[in-house]
Amino acid sequence: MRVIIQRVSKASVTVEGEVISSIADGLLILLGIEAEDTDVDSKWLSGKISRLRIFADENGVMNRSIQDVDGEAIVVSQFTLFASTKKGNRPSYIKAASTEIAIPIYEGFVNQLELDLGKKVGTGIFGTDMKVNLINDGPVTLLIDTKNKE
Fold first, then answer.
1. I need a surface site. Which of 96, 118, 127, 144 has the fewest CB within 10 A?
2. Does residue 123 carry a catalytic annotation?
C-alpha cells in the first residue's frame, strides 16, 4: 500500500456535484493499493498514520498525532499512486490492484483507521470521478509505502 498524507485545515470530497465527505483539521489520506497488499499492510499503515506526530504542540513543534489533537480524516482511493512512468509518456497502472482485490482492502483499511482513531472516517466513493478540495496546512505532505517501511 502506498499513501500520500496531507495535514489539512479543511478538506472535502465531491462526487457529481454533491459533497460526500468533509473535515476540518486533520488528515487527507490518498490510498493506493497493489495486488500483493493484505490486511497486515492495512493494520500496520493505519497504526502508523494514527500515531504519526505531524501536528504542532504548544511550542510549534510537530510532536502531536491526529489522536492527540482529536483530528478528523478522509481516505480517498488513488490507484494512480502506483503509476509507472518508466516508458513513454503515458503512465501504466499495471501495479495497481484490480477492483476485486482493492475494494475489500480499501474498506478494511478505513475500518481499521476508524478503530485506531475511535471515530468515523470520511471517504470518497471507490472507482468514481471525485473532486478533492483541500487546504494543506504547513504544507505538510508525506509519502508512506508499506513495502518500504522507513
1. 118
2. no
Strands 122-123 and 72-77: parallel
The reported pTM is 0.95
Compute the residue count for the chain: 150
Helices (runs of H) and strands (runs of E) counted in the chain: 2, 8
The amino acid occupying position 115 is: L
Dump pLDDT digits (tens) for 56-67.
999 999 999 999
99-117 vs 39-51: helix crossing angle, rounded to 10: 40
**DSSP for 13-41, written as a single string:** EEETTEEEEEESSEEEEEEE-BTT--HHH
CA distance 82 to 38: 16
C-alpha–C-alpha distance, residues 83 and 90, integer Å = 9
| Beta carbons of 23 and 74 less than 8 angstroms apart | yes
Grid cell of 66 as nine digits: 491526529
